[in-house]
């Protein structure tokens, strides 16, 4: 794939970039290695000062940065501005909390004595240069939720961003440079996917994090495993959205629309499979379908647009194929389901009912504004349908019954259970999945410790 900005609203190529050559890649790896040797010794106060400055600059750049994101991958402009604000919030959160999250942990005196020590503590030390392989769908947020904790922990970052968002990738490097981070603390590598293995195998790179597709995750994990290097993977999701009889149907249906079409449906944590108890199925389906039909599809730079184009022609065509195959196999179209004839890579908000396990759309992630509806006879069947997926990123449950809540929290196979609301990441809470959605956690104290050397310091008696 060429490294280029191609406007998904009209297919126009706006900018192209040459990939880095071997000599420049080597220079950047050496720079990262040298930067880590000194940056790792900086104080939390100094790192926090730099991170807060980066957050300030990011907010000052909101309008231009949001417009670049929208032009590169089609995100509605209002959502692009919200992404900028969310990134600045996370940067300040880690600036405020990193020192306490990584503070030395003193063992109990009795336990230290039992080991023959006068004192034992646990210290969190940075690992070194971390390679981040990031996707296009949240081109700022996906990077910042890695970079903010990694830099605050004393690590340095090497970013291999998606090839269709090069301007955003270069902006991130410039942002940290302007904020005053030492040279080499955060570098963008404009490279193709074929260069990732060589970089990951370099002994100066100590770990990797990837957000993206399952095949990409497998490839990075395989190389990292061969090199015995730590990885964190956040892969696909096909999140269930369960609605039980005690739910507030109006709120559940209204929130369901947002949960499905956030970022034009191109979100790993977007609700995708809507599992509704039979007692309220028809009422929910009517409300939900009406909400999906009412969405405005259009130019993502238009302030009134709810749903923009998909990021690529390949993505639009793949989504359409899933829908077409499901309909041919007996799925019922409640709205949408037909490709747009307008310029650009648009697909209409679509709701399908009567989906069966034999259909590809039942097992594969729908990365776009397409929802599948399932009818569940009771709680047991709702749990079974929800867990009948290779993915386990997050989940949403609407019920006011405490027994229902206890059961769903106990039995849903997911990294998160959101009750009477939609899944949304927040810097204070861990984020990640199970099964083929990956492993490890981002955000919160769990995220910042993923790329730390957890060191036992034992003092003899």
UniProtKB/TrEMBL annotation:
The protein's matches in Gene3D superfamilies, at most eight in alphabetical order, are given as:
Aldehyde Dehydrogenase, Chain A, domain 1 (3.40.605.10), Aldehyde Dehydrogenase, Chain A, domain 2 (3.40.309.10)
Q: Known SUPFAM superfamilies for this protein?
A: ALDH-like
Gene Ontology molecular function: aldehyde dehydrogenase [NAD(P)+] activity; succinate-semialdehyde dehydrogenase (NAD+) activity
Residues in domain Aldehyde dehydrogenase?
3-457
Q: Record keywords: NADP included?
A: yes
Taxonomically, which superkingdom? Answer: Bacteria
Query: What keywords sit in the KW lines?
Result: NADP, Oxidoreductase
The similarity comment for this entry is: Belongs to the aldehyde dehydrogenase family.
List the PANTHER family hit by this protein, alphabetically. Answer: SUCCINATE SEMIALDEHYDE DEHYDROGENASE [NAD(P)+] SAD (PTHR43217)
Protein name (record): NADP-dependent succinic semialdehyde dehydrogenase
Its taxonomic path starts at: Bacteria, Bacillati, Actinomycetota, Actinomycetes, Kitasatosporales
What's the gene? Answer: gabD1
